[in-house]
Amino acid sequence: MYTITKRMEVSGAHFLHLDYESKCSHLHGHNWIITVTCQRETLDSNGMVVDFTKIKETVNQLDHVLINDVIGNLNPTAENMAKWICDRIPYCVKVSVEETEGNVAIYEK
């Protein structure tokens, strides 16, 4: 099994739709640390699991934007962001989204 991991930082803003009172319901921003892991039994014809550029292109869709506008009808929690990223990258098996130091959401297939 081949495994690759790419770690990136993106800056963006979001607001959450919550069924309770929270300051997170107001527009605010983060510098998210996003780590993407992809796995594959065999390499492609270029000798790769997936090109790191594909991962970068997908994650960069969330950089310097209002996340609410990018991920559609999903509430832009770190958990939903992790799944949204994973669903768009071939052979992705795990995405972690660190919203603030010590607060990490992980989605694994």
From TrEMBL:
<dbReference type="GO" id="GO:0046872">
    <property type="term" value="F:metal ion binding"/>
</dbReference>
<comment type="similarity">
    <text>Belongs to the PTPS family. QueD subfamily.</text>
</comment>
<keyword id="KW-0479">Metal-binding</keyword>
<keyword id="KW-0862">Zinc</keyword>
<feature type="active site" description="Charge relay system">
    <location>
        <position position="99"/>
    </location>
</feature>
<feature type="active site" description="Charge relay system">
    <location>
        <position position="64"/>
    </location>
</feature>
<dbReference type="InterPro" id="IPR038418">
    <property type="entry name" value="6-PTP_synth/QueD_sf"/>
</dbReference>
<dbReference type="GO" id="GO:0070497">
    <property type="term" value="F:6-carboxytetrahydropterin synthase activity"/>
</dbReference>
<dbReference type="InterPro" id="IPR007115">
    <property type="entry name" value="6-PTP_synth/QueD"/>
</dbReference>
<comment type="pathway">
    <text>Purine metabolism; 7-cyano-7-deazaguanine biosynthesis.</text>
</comment>
<keyword id="KW-0456">Lyase</keyword>
<feature type="binding site">
    <location>
        <position position="14"/>
    </location>
    <ligand>
        <name>Zn(2+)</name>
    </ligand>
</feature>
<feature type="binding site">
    <location>
        <position position="28"/>
    </location>
    <ligand>
        <name>Zn(2+)</name>
    </ligand>
</feature>
<protein>
    <recommendedName>
        <fullName>6-carboxy-5,6,7,8-tetrahydropterin synthase</fullName>
        <ecNumber>4.1.2.50</ecNumber>
    </recommendedName>
</protein>
<dbReference type="Pfam" id="PF01242">
    <property type="entry name" value="PTPS"/>
</dbReference>
<feature type="active site" description="Proton acceptor">
    <location>
        <position position="24"/>
    </location>
</feature>
<feature type="binding site">
    <location>
        <position position="30"/>
    </location>
    <ligand>
        <name>Zn(2+)</name>
    </ligand>
</feature>
